[in-house]
Amino acid sequence: MLSGAKIGANLSYHLCGQLLQHYVDTGINPHLLIITPDDSGLWVGRWWLGFMVASLASALLVIPVAGLPARLSTFHDLNDNEVSETYGSDKGSDNKCPTDGQVVGEWVAVEEEVVVVKDQSTTSFWRLARNWPYVCVTIASDCLVVTGLAAFGPKIVEQQFRVGAGVSALAAGVIGLSGAGGGNIAGSFAIKRYDMSIPAIMRFSMAMSALSLALGFGFAISCPEPVFAGVNTPYGNGSTGRLYGSHSNPYGLVEKCNEGCGCRPALYDPVCDGTGVQYYSPCYAGWAESNVSVGQKTGGLVAAARHLCPHTCPLLPLFLVAMFGLIFVTFMSAMPALTATLRCVEKSQKSVALGVQWFTVRLIGSIPAPLLFGRLIDHSCILWQPQSPTNTTGTPGADITGSCLVYDNRQMAYNVLILTIVCKCVTLAAVVAGKQLYKPAVNSVHPSHK
């Protein structure tokens, strides 16, 4: 089931990758605008169509789900044969499913309906908080890194290795689909094949966490950013364009050859000359905007093209292999962690334990992950696009910062690497603590304990 969820999420990357190859507006021919999905910084794909497809598919799935019974016919048999490894409770756990009229702890079963005799919510939460293996497994969920990669993985691939948005989404979908789905299946098979107890599961998770920590150093793989005149390299005539900008000239783009042209920073239209140097727009490059197609420039003709400069980096396959290994090993621990959670809590608390666990995982993982990854990636930006269309001086006074146009790839790689390594170290420490703190209840048994 979990593998299916991961497969579905990653299949959406393939679909979105194909949709991003089509221009955002259906009634406009992008060829007339001289932009393409692979080499232009102005391309915007048809992102909105994915939401419509997902909404329609979700609505159709309601029909078969609504036909499922309230309880499966094998509910009692599965609960009677379930293995109990409840964490150190002297009273043990209510291991059998309650039958008609049977009192179990604070619960009474009357003809298929379980009625709460006394509100024990506060006590249940307190008992879960004192269940140290449960707490450690929850902390070791590793959801922050997984969610961050799901949100920003395609962007990292696109910026680091200069590939199109569609290609980066497709690559992220392939490694996510095979890594997450395969890891879940492999982890489930390992538990079934070796009939793991909770201590064995903890040891298995320790090994996977240590391996994923090592694979996390794959984020150190990066490629140099493009050669951008006025940003990370001076203009070609030997002038001293201010690299990375200053307060008076925030982007270092204004120079003698273009300071009288009235170039507007809000109009980003990258061009590439014949030497592989990229310019912010034809105006900043000193070209007459109407003559860009023929490469006319004051003083002679030069090769010019209205797109990003081509750039190849041979490290992309190595990076994808490292990311596949990281995702595969991370998800190999997902099913063992879920199994350990269900085994180490009492039967009457299983639904509450899963609810509290998923709430906590999203609170400390899914919610802050996009914020942290996004902040760290933005921190590596070296060229922001201003949004004020009236400012023609390049001064930052009334400009509103727009999207990032150029990143420092090495800084981006280091930022993501540090966050990943910190999260992996916390995960490993939590698993080790859970292994050391676990003690079975008096009546908890497992075949490996006999």
From TrEMBL:
Q: Which GO terms describe its cellular component?
A: basolateral plasma membrane
Keywords, A to Z, come to: Disulfide bond, Membrane, Transmembrane, Transmembrane helix
Q: Name one GO molecular function term.
A: sodium-independent organic anion transmembrane transporter activity
Q: Does the keyword Membrane apply?
A: yes
Query: Would the keyword Ion transport turn up in this protein's UniProt record?
Result: no
The membrane spanning regions, by residue number, are 47-68, 132-153, 165-189, 201-221, 315-340, 412-433
Q: Which Pfam families match?
A: OATP
GO BP terms, alphabetized = sodium-independent organic anion transport
The UniProt entry, under PANTHER family, shows: ORGANIC ANION TRANSPORTER, SOLUTE CARRIER ORGANIC ANION TRANSPORTER FAMILY MEMBER 4A1
Name the UniProt record assigns to this protein: Solute carrier organic anion transporter family member
According to its UniProt entry, this protein's organism is: Medioppia subpectinata
